[in-house]
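We append the chain.
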Amino acid sequence: MSDKKRASQLGKVGVLLGGQSGEREISLRSGSGVLAALLSRGVNAHPFDPGERSLVELAEEKFDRVFIALHGPYGEDGTMQGVLEQLGIPYTGSGVMASALAMDKVMTKRIWLSKNLPTPRYIELSRQSDWNAVIAELGLPLIVKPAHEGSTLGISRVTTADALPAAYALAAQYDKSVLAEEFIAGMELTCPVLDMDGEPRALPLVRIIAPDANYDYENKYFSGKTQYLCPCGLDENLEKEIQAVTVEAYKMLGCRGWGRADIMLRASDEKPYLLEMNTSPGMTDQSLVPRSARAAGIDYEELCMRILEAATLDREKTKW
């Protein structure tokens, strides 16, 4: 089918970008890239920033479908998905429940562990936590992170006992729910998933090599010092094993459309550990899903088109 025909079938498209979360800056970059890609394919696409415009205005735009390029709370956590369900506007990515579950790292772990999928051990933290007991259970180093944030916001690697309270305080600035997680020493990987012909398919793994193994916000988006390898260099059978685990993790959360799992491959035994599932991954020029897609022969513009064409609703409703 020609690009013109594909574009005409999509109707008026909104690209949701910006938003209200701590990841607003990255979302603006993701959304701008998506918007430019769709326009280059002839799509009648328009930006919409829910951080600056009201939901009443969103309804008044009468979009036929939207591409969600929002990250973090209020965009990736089921809230915007619920709004779009009410408005009857098909949207990209996972539905309300799956988005909410994947955004909550604790709930994600509970579901994965119930299915015996590998994920690092964890403890939920509070101001009253016994820090020594946490360290006794999880060991050092360990990771402290907000339960509902992404883009490495509020995450700390704790190497000494006296640093744990400060790490908790930092994470608590971003989220009232904080967890400590077992540190897995090894290779950092990510595995995108893209629904193709109604079935989730894992794309090639991307290996992440950050300066001093510190894949923080600066090294993720701005320093230019982080290396990304795709192909990742792993044995083919091991890569397929990790891809299969990722697809199973995606299905267990009820995800659809597309997503991206972050994974640690333990150095001691090459066992993969699932860290989290992103249901609205970054789409900037440095983002991981586009890198992986290119290795699979899917360029950025085509990737955006495929994600958009899969836009849907949890259930069919009449559009306002």
